[in-house]
Amino acid sequence: MLVFNALRYEPHPTHYSVAQALEVVAALRPRQAFFVHMTHDIEHAAASRQLPPGVAFAYDGLEVTVTP
Question: I want to staple 6 with a disulfide (CB 3.0 to 4.6 A). Which of 2, 21, 23, 65 is the partner?
Fold first, then answer.
């Protein structure tokens, strides 16, 4: 599982954009990736439908189970 920063769609000087975060996911190929630290500019439901399988935007109250 990868939990990774994806601040916004536009580039930022100190944080990963969604596109950059997706590049990291493609390179590391985790079974599941969650993006965190997003701005409110990202509309969660619509944006989530555009992510590849195994990648999701995290949300308040999200619970995950980690198995070996």
Answer: 21
